[in-house]
């Protein structure tokens, strides 16, 4: 691939990069994967340990309910921990952690295995069994990693709720998953302040009934209310005999659920995306190994939050499956100064940094000097995820951070895909703003309304035409919605919800969402969540939310509100509504603007036409208005 002349601005990998890489010839790998797709994944699966072998690699008999590695017996945690503890990796660092306040912790594979077992035994003592749901609501601390692994070890299904979410978001997720246990931290440090997670959880619990026990991890140490009989301190239980160091591994079927993770969809409430032990494990292991080119001596840092899919796949499971040393940082990139990240890269000798365009743009604003005063020569690879990266940010990242030595892995994927789907590898020539091509063997396309492939450089719907191991299995408790939403538009094609173009070299250029999802600073939010939070305020009759371009955040939320009669528009009321959304959904969902209006554009069936609002705000032509009622 490196010898072929490509169109547009291309950055070819250096000889040094290619020589060092696990995969030196992308085309060869893609050819191999396309010739024998099941065989390709089977040979990767064979690198991991299974308790019992599969009958079939891919079972398409009940599509779109695909199954992978049918009837195989496995537990992802065995491959994350126990496998390494039996080798010379036993004393290798698995996790290095720095708190925002400068605290430091490190865990070897041995230590992470030990504490995960103890944690799992605590959960067992609370009555958690295989198939039970456990909600986890914490900041970026090592215990969140152990909590997830502890659940998986005993076959419980974890449901992590991002620590930046608030009362109603947490309540909704607790209730929908019908969680028996909630694992929460007392608080989290963010930008030098304490976010009182336990207080938020208490309020959510008043609205939710299923939770029997709350396990509280002490992080910030302020006073919290502990309800007798329900709430228990993690550190106290860890010192009791129930927190035994040996904990038997639950033998799972390959297709047994590993976790659910809520994400925003087209309409209505957030949906729980379900992933399984077997296929997810193989997909995440392989993609991290090939794309971020994991070598045993690497120190790898994914700066996302464990509460989102990026954290699940590429902070927790992927690095541990690969036996890597991974770094976790609790706080904000700019605390106390904008050099915090660069300082830590220098301090720990980080080799791989994986982050989001919004973070890059945010740090770029402070100027090059904050970066260049640090020795970042340990860096070998950089990564980007969450939204399209604008070429300007790409080039800054490439030259100022990577010193033109580090290829940028712009990885396109989703909560639903579980693993990278469109992604380069270090040996692949790069074009700023494009994630290059689908992962070897995977077929993706850009199609029109009728499902036909469009011409090169024409915009259309981004679809996936082959199953892949880490694919979503269903929406928890809602098979019908899964079928309709992802496979209902075109037969045999998974609809991503994104629009994209494919250029003459077969490189994909993702443009953005075509549904009611707004990507704010890379976080995925639904217009419905913001609107229902607004409507839950006593002054609001109706509300509409749209995303408009924002220099740092990518998109910002703008809202239109119709007040109930008797309420008067004012700056104070607008501020109160913003606070209300922050309290119900979370600070990330706070609208940038609130405009009071007397009516909203609707279809005759009463659906708000957000695209009309968006076109108007951007001064663009609203397009076809034939369905508009008013
Ligand atoms: C967007 C995050 C362009 C896209 C892993 C997708 C991207 C949504 C990229 C999924 C990228 C993610 N380039 N757009 N490299 N990565 N997206 O579920 O719109 O939080 O559909 O998963 O993020 O968001 P999610």
Characterize this entry briefly.
The chain has 630 residues and is of the alpha/beta class. Helix content is 30%, strand content 22%.
Highlighted features:
630 residues; alpha/beta; eight-stranded mixed beta sheet; seven-stranded mixed beta sheet; 19 helices; 30 strands; 22% strand; globular; binds 5'-O-[(S)-ethoxy(hydroxy)phosphoryl]adenosine
* Number of helical segments with 4 or more residues: 19
Bound small molecules, deduplicated = 5'-O-[(S)-ethoxy(hydroxy)phosphoryl]adenosine
Structural class by helix and strand composition: alpha/beta
Strand order of the largest sheet: 12-11-8-6-7-14-15-23
Number of DSSP E strands: 30
Largest sheet descriptor: 8 strands, mixed
Shape type? globular
Unreliable residue runs: none
Report the end-to-end length measured between terminal Cα atoms: 54 Å
Q: Kindly state the percentage of residues in helix.
A: 25-40%
| Rg, alpha carbons | 24 Å
Question: What is the typical, i.e. mean, pLDDT?
Answer: 96
How would you describe the overall organization of this protein?
The chain is globular. The protein contains 19 helices and 30 strands. The relative contact order is 0.11. The strands form 8 sheets. It has an 8-stranded mixed beta sheet, sandwiched between helices. A 7-stranded mixed beta sheet has the order 5-4-17-16-18-19-20, sandwiched between helices. The chain is of the alpha/beta class and about 625 residues long. The site of 5'-O-[(S)-ethoxy(hydroxy)phosphoryl]adenosine has 23 residues, from helix 11, strand 24 and strand 25.
């Amino acid at each position: 691939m490196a010898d072929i002349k490509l169109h547009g601005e291309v950055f070819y990998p250096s000889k040094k990069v290619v020589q060092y890489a696990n995969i030196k010839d992308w085309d060869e790998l893609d050819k191999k994967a396309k010739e024998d797709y099941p065989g390709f994944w089977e040979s990767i699966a064979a690198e991991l340990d299974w308790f019992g072998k599969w009958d079939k690699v891919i079972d398409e008999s009940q599509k779109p309910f695909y199954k992978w590695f049918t009837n195989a017996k496995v537990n992802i945690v065995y491959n994350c921990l126990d496998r390494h503890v039996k080798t010379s990796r036993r004393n290798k660092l698995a996790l290095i952690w720095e708190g925002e306040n400068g605290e430091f912790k490190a865990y070897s594979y041995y230590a992470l295995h030990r504490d995960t077992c103890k944690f799992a035994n605590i959960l067992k003592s609370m009555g958690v069994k295989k198939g039970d749901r456990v909600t986890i609501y914490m900041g970026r601390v090592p215990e969140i990693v152990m909590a997830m692994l502890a659940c998986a070890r005993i076959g419980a299904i974890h449901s992590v709720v991002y620590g930046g979410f608030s009362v109603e978001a947490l309540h909704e997720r607790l209730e929908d998953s019908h969680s028996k246990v909630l694992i929460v931290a007392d608080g989290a440090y963010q930008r030098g302040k304490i976010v009182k997670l336990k207080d938020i959880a208490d309020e959510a619990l008043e609205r939710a009934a299923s939770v029997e026990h709350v396990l509280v991890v002490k992080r910030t140490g302020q006073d919290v209310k502990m309800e007798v009989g329900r709430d228990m301190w993690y550190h106290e239980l860890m010192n009791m005999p129930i927190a035994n160091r040996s904990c038997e591994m639950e033998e799972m079927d390959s297709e047994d659920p590993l976790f659910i993770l809520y994400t925003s969809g087209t309409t209505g409430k957030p949906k729980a995306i379900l992933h399984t032990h077997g296929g997810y494990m193989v997909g995440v292991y392989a993609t991290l190994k090939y794309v971020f080119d994991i070598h045993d001596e690497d120190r790898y840092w994914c700066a996302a939050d464990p509460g989102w899919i990026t954290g699940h796949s590429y902070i927790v499971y992927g690095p541990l499956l690969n036996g890597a040393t991974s770094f976790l940082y609790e706080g904000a990139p700019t605390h106390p100064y904008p050099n915090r990240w660069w300082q830590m890269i220098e301090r720990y000798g980080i080799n791989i940094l994986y982050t989001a365009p919004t973070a890059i743009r945010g740090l770029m604003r402070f100027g090059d000097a904050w970066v260049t005063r640090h020795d970042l020569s340990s860096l070998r690879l950089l990564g980007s995820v969450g939204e399209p990266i604008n070429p300007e940010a790409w080039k800054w990242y490439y030259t100022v951070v990577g010193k033109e030595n580090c290829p940028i892995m712009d990885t396109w994927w989703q909560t639903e895909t579980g693993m990278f789907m469109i992604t380069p590898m270090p040996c692949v020539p790069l074009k700023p703003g494009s994630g290059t091509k689908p992962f070897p063997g995977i077929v993706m396309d850009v199609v029109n309304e009728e499902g036909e492939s469009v011409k090169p450089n024409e915009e259309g719907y981004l679809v996936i035409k082959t199953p892949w191991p880490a694919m979503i299995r269903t929406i928890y408790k809602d098979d019908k919605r899964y079928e309709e939403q992802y496979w209902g538009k075109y037969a045999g094609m998974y609809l991503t919800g994104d629009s994209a173009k494919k250029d003459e070299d077969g490189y994909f250029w993702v443009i953005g969402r075509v549904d009611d999802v707004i990507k704010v600073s890379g976080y995925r939010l639904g217009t419905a969540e913001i609107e229902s939070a607004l409507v839950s305020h006593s002054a609001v009759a109706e509300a509409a939310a749209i995303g408009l371009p924002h220099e740092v955040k990518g998109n910002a939320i703008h809202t239109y509100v119709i007040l109930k009669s008797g309420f008067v528009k004012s700056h104070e009321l607008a501020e109160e509504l913003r606070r209300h959304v922050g309290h119900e959904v979370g600070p990330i969902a706070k609208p940038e603007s609130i405009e009071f209006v007397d009516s909203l554009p609707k279809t005759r069936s009463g659906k708000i036409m957000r695209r009309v609002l968006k076109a108007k705000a951007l001064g663009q032509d609203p397009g076809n208005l034939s369905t508009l009622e008013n």
